[in-house]
Automatic annotation (TrEMBL):
This is Mobile element protein. It comes from Candidatus Enterovibrio escicola.
Length: 66
């Protein structure tokens, strides 16, 4: 008998509560990551090149060359 059979079956169960928990966890992780990125960028706010901010959040400003 395959001992993992019951675990696999459990994960396949459709449950609205599980989906709600998953969405909540994803939102919390996204917020935590965004907060960490903002904190990191704040540490490098004074770093500039050619009068422009040297460290930026990827994808939030137009492409530029330093």
């Amino acid at each position: 008998m395959d001992n993992n059979h019951y675990i696999t079956e459990f994960h396949k169960l459709e449950n609205p509560f599980n989906e709600l928990l998953k969405q909540g966890a994803q939102q919390l992780l996204a917020q935590a990551i965004e907060t960490e990125v903002r904190s990191l960028l704040d540490n490098f706010i004074s770093l500039q090149a050619n009068g422009k901010q040297g460290v930026i959040h990827n994808g939030h400003l137009p492409e530029r060359y330093l």
